[in-house]
Design a protein that fits this description.
The complex is a heterodimer of chains A (300) and B (212).
Chain A: H1 12-56, E1 66-69, E2 75-80, E3 86-88, H2 97-107, E4 108-113, E5 119-120, H3 122-125, H4 129-135, E6 147-152, E7 165-173, E8 178-185, E9 192-199, H5 213-216, E10 242-243, H6 248-251, E11 261-262, H7 269-285, H8 287-299
Parallel strand pairs in A: 10-11
Antiparallel strand pairs in A: 1-2, 2-3, 4-5, 4-6, 6-7, 7-8, 8-9
Helix pairs in contact in A: 1-2
Chain B: H1 8-16, H2 29-34, H3 39-62, H4 72-94, H5 96-102, H6 104-107, H7 113-121, H8 128-158, E1 160-161, E2 164-165, H9 191-211
Antiparallel strand pairs in B: 1-2
Helix pairs in contact in B: 1-8, 3-4, 3-7, 3-8, 4-5, 4-7, 7-8, 8-9
The chains are: A alpha+beta (300), B mainly alpha (212).
Chain lengths: 300, 212
């Protein structure tokens, strides 16, 4: 082997020029890529939000196939028909993007509720839905005078039949960043149908477990108003779902509070607190609307 | 190394088996533990790493003569980050659900020791084509190990392969047959990969000792 040559002294100007040029080339390539891919990225994100909403409302399973409630009240796999209705199907089929959108359009209706709990829609309120949804996504719809709520129409329903569920968009802060999700309620405005989170940056394996089906499966049939006796005063009853530290059965036992609580995640207490706060803050803004739903439901 | 001639394909094949980055060098373990609970996820991760390593090695080698020695590490890092961001953007646009599952692990390819190890250890000393093959081999070597680990974990952890049920549902324990089969819960969590990789290294060493 030959003696390695002594490296020549580096010229600092050349080094600086090299780095500047390299950085510019890399930045240039990435900015072109970012602008080219912006549209498909937005579409993918929107589709994922719609999917998460349908997961919360039990129209879609975590594995990505449609669900339908059968006569026994169980959720079974379903396939979508061209007109956007669902039909029970023993075969598990993953729907295409177009099928997902068709079913979403057919079943999900966006509505607005005011501070008194009255329901209106975007047309009557003179608001543009796309602008409204984009504008207040970060700050939270619950802070607006007119709050967003999604009504889930029954399968194969007429346009103005009674919704089978309401989905409330949830905003909050986890440990690292904002978390966004959905909470689906039965028409009584109290019982939880399902939940999902569509955007979070929690620690993978710890806080990010809020997106895990196993953890989310605790929520169905919990209630959001703290039950107290025969006739609870809904105007003052604590509202929300608490993520406890540890297991609900250990911490709360059989107390009524256990009905509004779910197990925490080991190593993710702060994410759990963030989730608790998010439900409390958002749901209290919707309280008049929820009370109204409750009263309408109990009249029948 | 420089004195003896290595055939071009040797750069590729050596990385797949004899110099496998996970089994021999024990690099890239973090993501190998983190993302291998499903086959589809391990494959995406394996291909992403192979892509990043191959192209980073190619460009590091291309620039090796004009790269000032004092800034060569940061140059490599800039090139690696470029390709990692490209992958990340593509996953976000076209495989959104996959990018959600992989979450931070895609960004963490930048710090995957395999990539930097190959650019610093090989690419900066050889021609672009051998460097590319070496990088691709390192990535593929990483990918097949992930694939094996992912397969074992998905099969025992979920009873599925590629999200398709393999173990018949009728075998599973239910209210009537509480003593029947049950999924191996440990397999779903990252520590399982730790044991599997340990086992793979053991098997790998036995095979290599036999053939040697």
């Amino acid at each position: 082997m030959a003696e390695p040559p002594v490296p020549p002294r580096e010229n600092p100007t050349r080094t600086i020029i090299f780095m500047v040029v390299l950085s510019f080339v890399c930045a240039f390539i990435l900015s072109i890529l970012a602008s080219v891919l912006e549209e498909p990225k937005e579409t993918a994100k929107d589709l994922d939000r719609s999917k998460q909403l349908m997961i919360a409302a039990k129209m879609l399973s975590h594995d990505g196939h449609f669900l339908i409630k059968n006569d026994q009240g169980e959720y079974v796999p379903a396939k979508s028909l061209p007109d956007g209705t669902l039909e029970e199907d023993s075969k598990i089929e993953i729907p295409s993007q177009a099928q997902l959108i068709a079913v979403y359009k057919k079943r999900i209706q966006s509505l607005l509720v005011d501070d008194k709990g009255n329901i209106t829609n975007f047309e009557k309120a003179g608001l543009k839905e796309d602008d409204y949804v984009a504008e207040y996504k970060k700050s939270g719809y619950y802070k607006q005078p007119l709050k967003l709520v999604y009504a889930v129409l029954p399968n194969a329903a007429e346009k103005d039949s009674k919704p089978e569920a309401y989905v409330i968009p949830i905003n909050g802060y986890g440990l690292w960043d904002a978390i966004y999700g959905y909470l689906a309620l039965k028409p009584d405005g109290d019982t939880v149908l399902g939940i999902s989170w569509y955007d979070q940056k929690e620690t993978p394996g710890l806080g990010a477990n809020i997106t895990e089906p196993a953890w989310q499966s605790q929520f169905p049939s919990k209630v959001i108003f703290l039950p107290s006796g025969e006739k609870p005063n809904l105007k003052t009853a604590p509202l929300g779902i608490n993520v406890v530290k540890g297991k609900v059965s250990d911490v709360l036992g059989d107390s009524p509070k256990a009905k509004t609580a779910v197990d925490g995640m080991t190593g993710a207490t702060l994410t759990g607190n963030g989730v608790t706060d998010a439900y409390r803050d958002v749901l209290s803004a919707y309280r008049p609307f929820l009370i109204k739903l409750h009263e309408e439901n109990s009249k029948k | 190394m420089a004195s003896q001639k290595v055939p071009l394909s040797g750069y590729f094949t050596n990385q797949l088996w004899g110099g496998n980055q996970i089994l021999v060098a024990v690099l890239g373990i973090c993501s190998a533990l983190g993302v291998t609970n499903r086959l589809s996820v391990s494959i995406t991760m394996g291909i992403s790493v192979a892509f990043v390593t191959a192209f980073s090695c190619f460009f590091v080698s291309l620039l090796r003569r004009i790269t000032p020695d004092s800034v060569r590490m940061i140059t490599q890092l800039a090139i690696i980050s470029l390709f990692v961001i490209i992958i990340d953007q593509f996953l976000q646009a076209y495989l959104y659900s996959m990018s959600k599952v992989l979450s931070v692990y895609v960004g963490l390819i930048i710090t995957n020791c395999i990539v930097m190890g190959r650019t610093e250890g090989m690419a900066k000393n050889v021609e672009p084509i051998p460097a590319f093959l070496d990088g691709l081999g390192a990535g593929m070597g990483y990918a097949w190990v992930l694939f094996v680990v992912g397969g074992i974990r998905e099969f025992f952890g979920f009873g599925q392969l590629f999200n398709y049920q393999i173990i018949p549902l009728s075998w599973y324990a239910d209210a009537q047959h509480p003593n029947a089969y049950d999924n191996f819960a440990l397999m779903v969590s990252p520590p399982a990969a730790f044991f599997i990789i340990g086992g793979l290294i053991w098997v790998f060493n036995i095979i290599n000792r036999r053939t040697a």
